[in-house]
Specification:
Helix 6 packs across helix 8. This protein is an alpha/beta fold. The strands form 2 sheets. It has an 8-stranded mixed beta sheet, with helices on both faces. A 3-stranded mixed beta sheet has the order 5-9-10. 41% of the residues lie in helices and 17% in strands.
Length: 358
């Protein structure tokens, strides 16, 4: 039997040499490891490769590390290419799965035969650098929208001061930091801003590639943290796990119930429950601005994007094993890594969805 390791089938459209080289450099460790198995084990080896958002990249890297310890015959590697690029890749038949925070379009579901299933819960938090300001900053969707539109330019602006009467805000210019196009965090954050600001909705809308009118870019989530922490007066947005691990200050955000809520495991889970309970079957649901007093309003699923049918039963079986592991052992690892695991009711619905695929 031939070795079953993955060589990505490249899409028909032309790729730049730079992009092709980058993908091959990332893929080579997987292929090299597969080629160095003994011939007996290599006969049944399957190396699964997925690409996706940098938002859950630390978790997928940890998942890969732990999953790859289970068997030399099943391997997985995650490439943080961004949500939009990863959806494009799997739509064209490249790779085994993709991951990100953008709901699939009807066209991607129908024409490419893709589905999305949630793997974890994430939250996007506004991070900031205000030296000398004690206490927790409070921000609303409308004020954040005006900041990222360039309409509110200074930290002591009346709109910010009104939300923070107990803070002594400095007369300091706001330095906006944003993510470049194709990022899942862009979609979640811009969706929240568009839902809370008619001006933002009209000028920018919700998109993985919004045309930010002010500020400077940060390529990856880790770059966002580095840039904000190095620039006094800076504000940006990043997945909560990055902020918590790096001890970056992040704001409480006003939710639809009128409460300023800080992103925590409990408030992120509350947003999911407000949308999903009692049936727990809206696997592609938008969790932004969820109802409930305790719901953190910039919450989202991070999805796994999969093909609804598979030509190779061996690869399908390997992918089923990986997903089942993600929904059991992997959920505890997610918690240990600072992410929020799916509620048990939702985990079971995801398993049911995956068992229905053929």
């Amino acid at each position: 039997m031939p070795v079953r390791f993955l060589l990505w089938p490249w899409p028909c459209q032309r790729r730049s040499g730079r992009q092709t080289s980058r993908l091959w450099l990332l893929l080579w460790p997987v292929l090299f490891a597969s080629l160095n198995h003994s011939s007996a084990s290599a006969q049944n080896a399957v190396a699964l490769v997925g690409a996706g958002s940098s938002v859950p990249a630390p978790l997928y890297n940890k998942w890969s590390e732990e999953y790859n310890k289970r068997s030399s015959n099943l391997r997985v590697r995650y490439l943080p290419l961004g949500t939009s690029e990863s959806i494009k890749e799997i739509s064209h038949g490249s790779g085994d799965f993709a991951a990100g925070e953008v709901p699939l379009t009807a066209k991607e579901r129908s024409d490419s035969g893709l589905i999305e299933v949630p793997t974890i819960l994430i939250a996007i938090v506004p991070i900031y650098n205000l030296p000398g300001v004690d206490g927790e900053l409070r921000l609303s969707g409308s004020v954040l929208a005006d900041i990222f539109l360039g309409r509110v330019k200074n930290w002591d602006a009346p709109a910010i001061a009104k939300l923070n009467p107990s803070l002594s805000l400095p007369s300091m210019p706001i330095k906006v930091v944003f993510r470049p196009g194709g990022k899942g965090s862009n979609f979640v954050f811009s969706d929240f801003l568009a839902r809370n600001s008619p001006q933002f909705r009209s000028a920018i809308g919700n998109s993985a590639s919004p045309k930010w009118p002010v500020g400077s870019p940060a390529e990856r989530s880790s770059d966002m943290v580095d840039k904000v922490t190095s620039e006094p007066g800076a504000i940006g947005f990043v997945e909560a796990q990055y902020a918590m691990r790096k001890k970056v200050r992040y704001a409480s955000v006003l939710n639809p119930a009128g409460h300023f809520v800080r992103a925590t495991d409990a408030t992120i889970a509350a947003a999911c429950e407000a949308v999903e309970a009692p049936n727990w079957d809206k696997l592609a649901a938008n969790l932004v601005n969820a109802s409930g007093a305790d719901s953190y309003p910039i919450t989202s699923f991070s999805w796994l994007y999969l093909r609804a049918s598979a030509d190779d039963p061996h690869r399908a079986g390997a992918l089923a094993d990986l997903l089942n592991w993600m929904l059991t052992t992997g959920q505890q690892i997610a918690t240990d890594e600072g992410y929020v695991s799916l509620p048990p009711q939702l985990q079971e619905k995801v398993r049911e969805k995956f068992r229905s695929l053929h």
